[in-house]
Amino acid sequence: MAKKRTNSADVDKVTRAITSARSAEFLHPNAGANGSVEEEIAIPSATTDSAREGIRLSFLIHDVSRMRRSAYDQFMKPLGVTRAQWWVLAYLSRHDGMMQTQLADVLEVGKASLGDVIESLERNGWVERRPDPTDKRAKRVYLAKAAQGLIKRMTTMEIEFNGQILGELSSAERAELGRSLQKIKQALSRAIPGLSAPDTE
After folding, report:
1. Could you tell me which CATH number the domain at 2-168 has?
2. Higher pLDDT, 22 or 126
3. Is the pTM of this model over 0.70?
């Protein structure tokens, strides 16, 4: 039993690490109880309209990201998959057979912490680690056959989830939103060299 509690703590730790790295959750000091800052922030009157709008948009993006993340966790809870686990599975579904060290770098978590998550996925029969053909000391991570059904259920549930939260947007609005967010992502990459995020394609 003690070992099981330790593994759970390790999974929780890497979950928090991935959440922090992916969402940059830096709450404003004046945030309300629900974390929303859009109505709380005091903007100097001398600030230009454009700058004021930029500040409001920045906090709106933060709020939407935080709320979506929490809602998605609740929506996926029946599958019994932690955020750290489904993040790894989702990435491997697009880039199967990655080196474990590369996967840790891409997800921006410690190699030891990621190792704990992968061990838990191995115990559930969802991933397999195999030696790299050219470097026996290195391990590559592959989705196991049993994970295919889980990925399908996750995909089906995500489609349903996105239908709920994006249902009021037209196809044109969704396309425009995607283009706008892509521009912001590219601007962030230019502003901070080395800043990256996992591929979404």
Report:
1. 1.10.10.10
2. 126
3. no
